[in-house]
Amino acid sequence: MSTVLTMTDVDLVRGNKKLLDQVSWSVNASERWVVLGPNGAGKSTMLSIAAARLHPTRGAVEILDETLGRVDVFELRPRIGLTSAPLADQIPASETVLDTVVTAAWGVAGRWREQYDSDDEQRAHQLIRDWDLQKLVDRKFGSLSSGERKRVLIARALMTDPELLLLDEPAAGLDVGGREDLVERLNELAASPTAPAVVMVTHHLEEVPPGFTHALLMREGSVVAAGPVGEVMTPEVLSETYGLPLKLVRVGQRFAAFRQD
Ligand SMILES: Nc1ncnc2c1ncn2[C@@H]1O[C@H](COP(=O)(O)OP(=O)(O)OP(=O)(O)O)[C@@H](O)[C@H]1O
């Protein structure tokens, strides 16, 4: 099994605050990880390092057999698909769905004078079909619903056929129907043998697709637990992670958590 991401004793310090504290974690190509933890736990910071957008203050990070700090991140980034709120904010409201997806080939947000070959156009159209966006292909990004935008952004993240896909709160702001639709699509992606390794940050256990194999739980910049979902998604670990007594409910392969009375 090949390793796509390894963090060893990673610290990230800003001012006198440790955003990440001795984080060690690794992801294999066939794994699908969910990252959970309270607000401010350091989930997005950790994902930004995994996306080669941030460098650690201390520690070692290997991404796709390259060492952060010794690799040209502009060559590495196309091999990593990323969706996040800050990236979504960079897409011009007037950009069409097709252009939002295809421009990922050049790593730009907003089509200008770049040339796209027919392989790029075909791949963008294929992803638009895969994510059920055909009817929206000429619609402007700014006119889409939250759920439609999330699907466009995931299609865009997959445009470069990445070896690692990082999703930062992909279901944030969706209603129950939109969430369930996205969970089902992510579940299908997780099951695909051709899919990249996936890491998804979320706040809600209901958003964890059943096919996700591993969980990383973080609190105050540190790892509380990391491992197969069946081993680490326990009431004890979740209670420690969120700092309150939690009851874990499992319905089939889905989860929900409630305060323990
Ligand atoms: N540049 C910075 N300088 C100082 N503190 C920062 C900086 N960037 C982030 N932080 C702090 O680091 C902590 C971790 O932030 P991060 O966004 O990684 O957490 P998170 O787990 O993703 O939170 P949330 O679930 O609320 O999105 C937070 O307390 C945040 O305020």
From TrEMBL:
Keywords: ATP-binding, Nucleotide-binding, Transport. SMART domains: AAA. The keyword Nucleotide-binding applies. InterPro entries: AAA+_ATPase (IPR003593), ABC_transporter-like_ATP-bd (IPR003439), ABC_transporter-like_CS (IPR017871), Metal_Ion_Import_ABC (IPR050153), P-loop_NTPase (IPR027417). It holds the Pfam family ABC_tran. GO terms for molecular function: ATP binding; ATP hydrolysis activity. Gene3D superfamilies: P-loop containing nucleotide triphosphate hydrolases (3.40.50.300). Transmembrane segments: none annotated. Residues 5-245 form the ABC transporter domain. Belongs to the ABC transporter superfamily. This is ABC transporter ATP-binding protein. It comes from Kocuria soli.
